[in-house]
Design goal:
Largest sheet: 7 strands, mixed
Shape: elongated
Number of strands: 13
Number of helices: 6
Number of domains: 1
Structural class: alpha+beta
CATH topology: Ribosomal Protein S5, domain 2
Length: about 270
């Protein structure tokens, strides 16, 4: 996800390229270092699950709601997962209210794909009775945009899901006052987003670096297996670069998984 946002950003993009040519990033961050990650869980008491993730100055809020619905025709005994994203105008001057933008649709699909491909949620355990299943709605709200929404979104959704408590089902209806059953989670998925600028590869590009990218690749994994990839922009990525990125992504799993597990509770 890259936004071309005017003369100032072009100047910053050129500055980023000059730094990278010298093997340096802003704030002396390593090529494969994430910015500081801070995660708050259970941020919205009214939701079944929620979280706020900060990666540097990027801030993403996720709320999880569950309701009773009908299963998909091709999976009549599985529950449903629906991920949506909204780029709030308060997050950046270029974001506008209105119908979902292509960028918000891409964000939701990339986050959804990694979680779904890994079968992170045991959707078979969300079956209630004939023609009734639990539907999980994960709503991503971008509160501040400073680059790398894919990784922030995945961390936020995964944290919220792992702390989701399901409503009680009784007499054909959901009892939201009684939420005690954890959502059945099979595995934790994280994503790592790489940027390529000329011959340099970086991880977790900030907003200035995103304006300078030639290519971008987001890799979702569960610590053992690469579950999904999403490439962006027109630049090429060699097979060796792809192998290197895949290995780095797997190696970054422990760091990102620990950030989810160490999420603090809102007081």
């Amino acid at each position: 996800m890259v936004f071309k946002m005017g003369v100032f950003e072009d100047v910053k993009g050129n500055y980023v390229k000059e730094l990278l040519a010298k093997g340096v990033r802003e704030n002396n961050r390593g090529m494969f270092d994430f910015r500081k990650i801070y995660i708050t869980k259970d941020f919205i008491p009214q939701a079944e699950g929620s979280s706020i993730v900060n990666i540097g100055d990027t801030k993403v809020l996720v709320g999880v709601k569950m309701q009773i619905g009908e299963p998909m025709a091709d999976n009549p005994t599985d529950g449903n997962l629906i991920v949506s994203a909204e780029l709030l105008p308060l997050a950046h001057a270029e974001f506008e209210s209105g119908p979902p933008s292509p960028e918000s649709i891409e964000l939701a699909r990339v986050v959804d794909r990694g979680i779904r491909a890994a079968n992170s949620i045991d959707l078979s355990k969300l079956f209630i009775e004939s023609n009734k299943v639990w539907e999980i709605y994960c709503d991503i709200y971008v509160l501040n945009y400073d680059g790398n929404l894919f990784d922030a979104g995945t961390l936020a959704v995964m944290t919220a899901l792992k702390n989701t408590k399901m409503p009680k089902y009784e007499d054909g209806k959901a009892i939201y006052e009684e939420r005690n059953i954890p959502l059945p989670i099979n595995s934790t998925v994280v994503s790592t987003t790489f940027g390529k600028i000329k011959d340099k590869i970086i991880i977790d590009p900030n907003i200035h670096e995103e304006t300078a990218l030639d290519a971008r690749l987001t890799i979702a994994n569960d610590g053992k297996i690469i579950r999904a990839m999403q490439k962006g922009l027109s630049g090429s990525i060699s097979s060796k670069e792809l192998d290197d990125m895949a290995n780095i992504s797997i190696n970054k799993y422990a760091e990102l998984n620990n950030a989810i597990n160490n999420a603090v509770k809102e007081e």
